[in-house]
Amino acid sequence: MNETLAIHWEKPYKTWVLTIVLANPELSWQPHQNATKRWESVRPENVPVLVEGLAYFMPLTIQAVTPLSTKNAENAHSAWDFTLDLADDCAFFGMHALVKDALDGFKLDWCIHPLDDAFPRRKALLMSDMDSTVLEGECIDELADFVGKKAEVARITEAAMNGTLNFEDALIERVALLKGLPVDSVQHVLNATLRMAGAKTLVDTMRHLGCFNVLVSGGFTPFTQALCDELRLDAHQANQLEEADGIFTGQVIPPILGKEAKLDALHYYSKRLGVPLEATLTVGDGANDLLMLQASGLGVAFHAKKAVHEQSRASVRFNDLSTLLYFQGIPQSDWII
What we know:
The structure is a single chain. The chain is elongated. The relative contact order is 0.17. The strands form two sheets. Strands 8-7-6-5-9-10-11 form a seven-stranded mixed sheet, with helices on both faces. It is an alpha/beta fold. It has twelve helices and eleven strands.
């Protein structure tokens, strides 16, 4: 990694913003519900009590509480910013560990961010994964369904996204199983695949605020191009499938875009746009997203695999992609819906 692009995570800060978003009970796509762990529900009026409890572990005061959501039918908010002033400066690792220990057992999403002009909350570059992030499900699994090999391919995909298989080797193995598949099956898969809840609101709002939006995927360019056009994204990168006479040959055209390539893409757009890494936002769910999640100013594991959630600095487990707007302190009243 180019050291000039690395964020100084050891730098201590005195003032922090803790964003808390209660679980959306209407969200249907929640794979984490299949986990054995049980999370404790929280009522809106009890959220300040949870935050005040942080003072038992680290001396701090709550300087301000800012509601971010519009009130629901019960006249209650579901998202807030808590501005925290520490008695002693603390680096990111310490603050994250403190909040994670205190809040991870509750049915809510949260994000901790330093309040510092050199580390802007509102990001200028958004880089998003595609499969199971902007789209529900994995496109390669659905393509394999056309040749009767969905179960076999899905098994390999799951292992690759959990990090138990090398991504590049797994991709080559899966693509080989697509040999003979008509190219027009891509459009069938796109038509049948749901867009992730909150994706359009996230992208439209970020674009309205002047953000550069990139889709970077270990999937395939026909899908990323279509989504780039549909969501009016600024750029996209993905793998290319070799085809001949309207049929996929079962080969990937090198180079393969894996986790290192996603990190390279983050560095490329950061330098090209003159956006410091502190002002970048990344989101994804799989092991091949982890490097870019860890390198960006705000890297969000979205309904992610367990290993990805555990190694990320921010996660969304109970809400949709619009939560990333709350994480940047953008109130719901400013969203483009």
